[in-house]
């Protein structure tokens, strides 16, 4: 596959948004808000940054990805389907007893999923383990993860952050999806996790702050992470929860709720219009 | 072998001895290598030893990640932290994806002694047994531990291995027909009136209880159930049919562990009197290991009394 850049990446991210929201609508349950906020980063990883082979999902030398905020599985599934790991039609069975697309990622049943996640706070440790294994085995592959800014209230995240710095894991790059909202409301009210840049720098990480919906900034940050030696990189991406669907944007209430038929019709029209607009410009 | 060695000591030696043969083996610890006895492996193979600090939950996740990349991690900490603090990490991140990680819980049971209740884990066997696909092992002496570690190297999948703190007599190497196989109990001594199904250090106590009862004319069969899950149902069923009564014995809570496994199985397949010998739904306490074991009735004498009761319950 040719790597995607710029507008093509954005179009792909919006196509994934439409598939994710469609799947959640069909399932009548799921987590649209955080799925939509992380999709530009996720699409950039799978369509540009990461070394992988959809025909051989278990290829030992592939780059690894861990969705530490596992409830955003619809986003990951949509990207994996678009990237060719499994047919796009499978997305219609999200959260269904038929098929294998569980509510949270399941590495045993979904091609392309490198780690089963869902219990918040645990995924980053596994990404650390993958990066450490690469160093241990003398392999060149890199390890990526996406965490939520609410998720980092979990203490285990900071255990993993300490360990990554201890072992100089410059092959580890973690996005934190700073959308500022979680189930009970604003992250600053529920449990303030900021200032994340100062915290991570104090833990000896390299920190980059970007607009998480600007693919050129995402690509530049990933490139900077690859050039950073001797320590892991955190990319703090400012995002909009529910990005791309007007009535979901910046609404905590859309963290874990499926759109009804009328709402989905509006969401679909908005996302299709955005795709058309991007393609025409 | 003979003599005395703690199962944790035999474990530490086995890791070192197997390291050359299994290059995929990596050992993780959480700042307890001098107690879990991984220190010798750390000294011999420093580039294969990862000290994760006092952060057990992260250690479990790191091990899971490493296992997906083809390594064979053994995580090491006390049983209370491995099975207790990190229960959900072990469940969701190691066992749900069925990863090839051995979770080692050292200092299992009340024989931890002086450190007291916070460090005496009596629930680990029950907790680990609840998790689908988990292999649960509790070897009884140094020889059995050595063989268990060797067998685990050839095993693919999640496993829990309990180690004990105090030195215990090594005896399985002197049993003529002894052989170790994962999931297969060992009949240590034949008997016809009652069967003791024991695990860990209680196996040797069962042998002593058998001697006490032999003097009274009660014939006790002793089964060493080093693997609590999957339970060797065939051996338990045969013992229940042939002896008509069963006593389980474990240095663990009577709730949910070996006793529960045996009682659940026999209740559905061959209802005979089953008496569970172990810690009776209680926290531990400080004292020497011997004093604490005696306090909780984990002695050959109390086990013998349980056997008399089981025999009396037979119709």
Summarize the structure.
The complex is a heterodimer of chains A (281) and B (315). Helix content of chain A is 43%, strand content 12%. Chain A has ten helices and seven strands.
Describe this structure in words.
The complex is a heterodimer of chains A (281) and B (315). With 281 residues, chain A is α/β, with parallel strands linked by helices. Chain A contains ten helices and seven strands. Chain A has a single domain (6-280), classed as Rossmann fold (3-Layer(aba) Sandwich). Chain A has a five-stranded parallel sheet with strand order 1-2-3-7-6, sandwiched between helices. In chain A, strands 4-5 form a two-stranded antiparallel ribbon. Chain B has helices at 7-19, 33-36, 39-44, 56-68, 79-85, 87-95, 124-129, 142-153, 202-214, 233-243, 258-269, 289-295, 300-313; strands at residues 4-6, 25-29, 49-51, 72-78, 102-106, 135-137, 159-162, 167-169, 186-189, 194-198, 220-224, 227-229, 246-253, 274-279. Chain B is built from 13 helices and 14 strands. Helix content of chain B is 40%, strand content 20%. Chain B starts with a strand and ends with a helix. In chain B, the strands form three sheets. Chain B has a seven-stranded mixed sheet, sandwiched between helices. With 315 residues, chain B is α/β, with parallel strands linked by helices. The chains are: A alpha/beta (281), B alpha/beta (315). The A-B interface holds A 60, 64, 66, 106-108, 114-119, 122-134, 136-137, 139, 143, 155-156, 159-160, 162-163, 166-167 and B 26, 47-48, 50, 52-53, 55, 57-71, 88-89, 92-93, 96-98.
Strand order of the largest sheet of chain A: 1-2-3-7-6
Largest binding interface between chains? A-B, 37 and 29 residues
* Model regions low in confidence, pLDDT < 50 over at least 5 residues of chain B: none
Estimate what percentage of residues of chain A fall within beta strands.
5-15%
What percent of residues of chain B are in strands? Answer: 15-25%
Just name the CATH architecture of the largest domain in chain B. Answer: 3-Layer(aba) Sandwich
> Which stretches of chain A of 5+ consecutive residues score pLDDT under 50?
none
CATH-defined topology of chain A:
Rossmann fold
Mean pLDDT of chain A: 97
Helix-strand makeup class of chain A: alpha/beta
State the name of the first-level CATH class of chain A. Answer: Alpha Beta
The oligomeric status of these chains comes to: heterodimer
CATH superfamily of the largest domain in chain B: Thiamin diphosphate (ThDP)-binding fold, Pyr/PP domains
Structural class of the helix and strand makeup of chain B?
alpha/beta
Name given to the CATH homologous superfamily of chain A: Thiamin diphosphate (ThDP)-binding fold, Pyr/PP domains
What strand order characterises the main sheet of chain B?
3-2-4-5-7-6-12
Distance between the termini of chain B: 43 Å
Rg over C-alpha atoms of chain B, rounded to the nearest angstrom: 19 Å
CATH class of the largest domain in chain B: Alpha Beta
């Amino acid at each position: 596959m040719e790597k995607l850049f710029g507008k093509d990446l954005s179009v792909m991210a919006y196509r994934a948004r439409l598939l994710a929201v469609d799947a959640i609508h069909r399932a009548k349950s799921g987590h649209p808000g955080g799925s939509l906020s992380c999709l530009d980063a996720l699409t950039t990883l799978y369509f540009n940054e990461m070394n992988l082979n959809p025909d051989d999902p278990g290829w030992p030398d592939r780059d690894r990805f861990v969705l530490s905020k596992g409830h955003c599985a619809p986003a990951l599934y949509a990207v994996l389907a678009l990237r060719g790991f499994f047919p796009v039609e499978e997305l219609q069975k999200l959260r269904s007893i038929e098929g294998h697309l569980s509510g949270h990622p399941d590495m045993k049943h979904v091609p392309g999923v490198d780690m089963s996640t869902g219990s918040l706070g645990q995924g980053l440790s596994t990404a650390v383990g993958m990066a450490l294994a690469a160093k241990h085995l003398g392999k060149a592959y890199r390890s990526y993860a996406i965490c939520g800014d609410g998720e980092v209230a979990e203490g285990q995240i900071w255990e993993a952050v300490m360990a990554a710095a201890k072992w100089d894991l410059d092959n580890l790059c973690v996005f934190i999806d700073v959308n500022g909202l979680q189930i009970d409301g604003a992250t600053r009210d529920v449990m303030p996790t900021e200032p994340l840049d100062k915290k991570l720098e104090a833990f000896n990480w390299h920190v980059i702050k970007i607009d998480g919906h600007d693919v050129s900034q995402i690509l530049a940050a990933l490139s900077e992470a690859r050039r950073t030696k001797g320590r892991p990189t955190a990319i703090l991406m400012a995002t909009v929860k529910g990005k791309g669907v007007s009535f979901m944007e910046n609404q905590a209430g859309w963290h874990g709720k499926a759109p009804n038929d009328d709402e989905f019709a509006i969401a679909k029209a908005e996302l299709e219009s955005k795709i058309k607009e991007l393609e025409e410009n | 072998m003979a003599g005395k060695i703690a199962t944790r000591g035999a474990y530490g030696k086995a890791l070192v001895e197997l390291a050359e043969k299994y290059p995929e083996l990596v050992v993780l610890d959480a700042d307890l290598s001098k107690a879990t006895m991984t220190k010798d492996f750390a000294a011999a193979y420093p580039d294969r030893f990862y000290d994760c600090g006092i952060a057990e939950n992260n250690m479990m996740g790191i091990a899971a990640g490493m296992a997906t990349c083809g390594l064979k991690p053994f995580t090491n900490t006390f049983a209370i932290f491995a099975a207790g603090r990190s229960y959900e990490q072990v469940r969701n991140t190691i066992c749900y994806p069925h990863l090839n990680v051995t979770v080692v819980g050292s200092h299992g049971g009340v024989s931890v002694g002086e450190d007291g209740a916070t460090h005496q884990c009596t629930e680990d066997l029950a907790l680990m047994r609840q998790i689908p696909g988990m292999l649960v092992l509790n070897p009884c002496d140094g020889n059995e531990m050595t063989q268990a570690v060797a067998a685990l190297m050839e095993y693919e999948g999640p496993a829990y291995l309990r180690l004990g703190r105090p030195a215990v007599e090594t005896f399985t190497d002197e049993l003529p027909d002894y052989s170790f196989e994962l999931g297969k109990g060992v009949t240590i001594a034949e008997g016809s009136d009652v069967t003791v199904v024991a695990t860990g250090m209680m196996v040797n106590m069962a042998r002593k209880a058998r001697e006490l009862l032999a003097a009274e004319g009660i014939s006790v069969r002793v089964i060493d159930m080093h693997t609590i899950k999957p339970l060797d149902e065939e051996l338990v069923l045969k013992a229940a049919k042939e002896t008509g009564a069963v006593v389980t014995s474990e240095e663990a809570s009577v709730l949910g562990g070996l006793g529960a496994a045996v009682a659940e199985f026999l209740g559905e397949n061959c209802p005979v009197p089953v008496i569970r010998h172990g810690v009776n739904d209680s926290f531990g306490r400080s004292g020497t290991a011997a004093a604490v074991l005696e306090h909780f009735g984990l002695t050959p004498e109390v086990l013998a009394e349980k056997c008399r009761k089981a025999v009396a319950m037979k119709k």
